[in-house]
Design a protein that fits this description.
The structure holds 2 protein chains of 2 kinds. Chain A is mostly helical. Helix content of chain A is about 60%, strand content about 0%. Chain A has helices at about 20-30, 40-45, 50-55, 60-70, 80-90, 95-100. In chain B, about 35% of the residues are buried. Classes of the chains: A mainly alpha, B alpha/beta.
Chain lengths: ~100, ~220
C-alpha cells in the first residue's frame, strides 16, 4: 500500500451511517475491554487480499475484522454468529427493519 | 455532491436514506448480530454503545484547534506539547488514552504531514473521525512516495528549500501537526487564533487561514 502508485486523492466525503458508527463503537468498546487490540484489528485488515479495498467499504472491512478478532478471542462462536445472522435476515429487507432497538 | 446520482434516488425521486432504505447488506447483518450477541453476553450495553457514538460525534477539529492556538500563545504549553502531546492534550480535556501522541511543529524550514499507510490511524481525540480521503488507497500509497505532489493536489505548494517530513502513524502512535502561526496575528487571543486553525492544517495537507480571511474575528 504505502509507496504503491495510485491516482489522485479522492475528495468525496460521505456522512457516516448509523451502522458505520456502531461498527466503530463496537471496535472501541471491545478493545477497551481487552477482547482484542488495535493491532489485532489491523492484522486482519492487512491479511485481506488487495481486492478487498475495491470490493468492500471501510467499515465493511472493519466489521469483518472485529468479527474475526472476537471469534478468535472466544467471545462467541461462528455457529452463534451464523444463527443470529440468519434470524436477522428473516426480520426484514432493510437495516431499519432488521435492527431491533 | 457525491450522492445525488440518479441511481441513488427512490422511484418517487427522493434520495434513499443511507441507513434504512436500501437492502440490508451482509455486513450490516453482521454488525447487528455482533452488537446483539455482545449485549446478551454482557460485554457491553446498548446505552454504552450509544454513549460511545455520542462521544465520537462530539469530537471535532475544534479540539485540535484549541490545542494549537494555545501552543501559539503559551510558550510553556508549547514546550509541554512537543515534549509529551498525550499529557498536554489530556490536560486540556482531550484524552487520547494509552496511545502515544506526538506533536510535530511546522517552521519556515520544515513542513510536516501525517498519514497512516496501513489503515486509518488518526489523532481522533483532537480531530474526530478521519475524512474519507485520509483512508483512501491513493492518499495512503502516494503520500510517502510523492508528498509534494499530494500536497499540491490539496493546494499546498511549498518552496523547494522547505523540507517535507511525512509521519506514518501506527496503532499505538499518532501525530498532530502544529502549523506555523500566521503572520499578522500579533495580539490575537487563543480563541481568535483557533478560528484560523483548520482540520487539514493539523494533518499537514493544508495551511491555517490567513488573518484577513476572518477579519471580523477580532471584534
Amino acid at each position: 500500500m504505502g509507496g504503491d502508485a495510485a491516482g489522485p486523492v479522492p475528495t468525496e466525503q460521505h456522512d457516516f451511517a448509523l451502522w458505520e458508527k456502531r461498527v466503530d463503537a463496537l471496535m472501541v468498546i471491545a478493545s477497551s475491554k481487552g477482547h482484542f487490540t488495535v493491532d489485532g484489528l489491523r492484522r486482519v485488515l492487512e491479511d485481506m487480499p488487495p481486492d478487498s479495498f475495491d470490493t468492500m467499504t471501510y467499515y465493511e472491512r472493519w466489521i469483518a475484522s472485529v468479527n474475526q478478532n472476537l471469534i478468535e478471542s472466544g467471545v462467541y462462536t461462528t455457529a452463534e454468529l451464523a444463527e443470529r445472522m440468519s434470524e436477522i435476515a428473516r426480520r426484514g429487507a432493510t437495516y431499519g427493519e432488521a435492527n431491533h432497538e | 455532491m457525491p450522492h445525488d446520482h440518479h441511481d441513488h434516488l427512490s422511484p418517487s425521486g427522493h434520495p434513499y436514506r443511507p441507513d434504512d432504505d436500501h437492502p440490508l447488506t451482509y455486513w450490516q447483518q453482521m454488525e447487528i448480530a455482533i452488537r446483539e450477541i455482545l449485549i446478551e453476553k454482557g460485554v457491553t450495553t446498548a446505552a454504552e454503545i450509544n454513549a460511545q457514538i455520542d462521544a465520537m460525534d462530539a469530537r471535532s477539529p475544534a479540539n485540535g484547534a484549541a490545542v494549537v492556538a494555545r501552543s501559539w500563545t503559551d510558550p510553556a504549553f508549547r514546550d509541554a506539547l512537543l515534549q509529551d502531546a498525550s499529557a498536554a492534550s489530556a490536560s486540556m480535556g482531550f484524552d487520547i488514552g494509552p496511545l502515544k501522541l506526538i506533536a510535530v511543529e511546522n517552521t519556515a524550514d520544515v513542513h510536516n504531514v501525517i498519514v497512516c499507510t496501513l489503515c486509518s490511524c488518526y489523532p481522533r481525540n483532537l480531530l474526530g473521525l478521519p475524512p474519507d480521503w485520509y483512508k483512501s488507497r491513493a492518499y495512503r500509497s502516494r503520500t510517502v512516495k510523492e508528498p509534494r505532489k499530494v500536497l499540491a493536489e490539496f493546494g499546498v505548494v511549498l518552496p523547494e528549500q522547505v523540507t517535507v517530513r511525512v509521519h506514518d502513524s501506527t496503532a499505538d502512535m499518532r501525530y498532530i501537526v502544529i502549523p506555523a502561526r500566521p503572520a499578522g496575528t500579533d495580539g490575537w487571543s487563543a480563541d481568535q487564533l483557533a478560528a484560523l486553525v483548520t482540520r487539514d492544517s493539523m494533518i499537514g495537507t493544508g495551511l491555517p487561514k490567513e488573518p484577513g480571511a476572518i477579519a471580523d474575528a477580532r471584534t
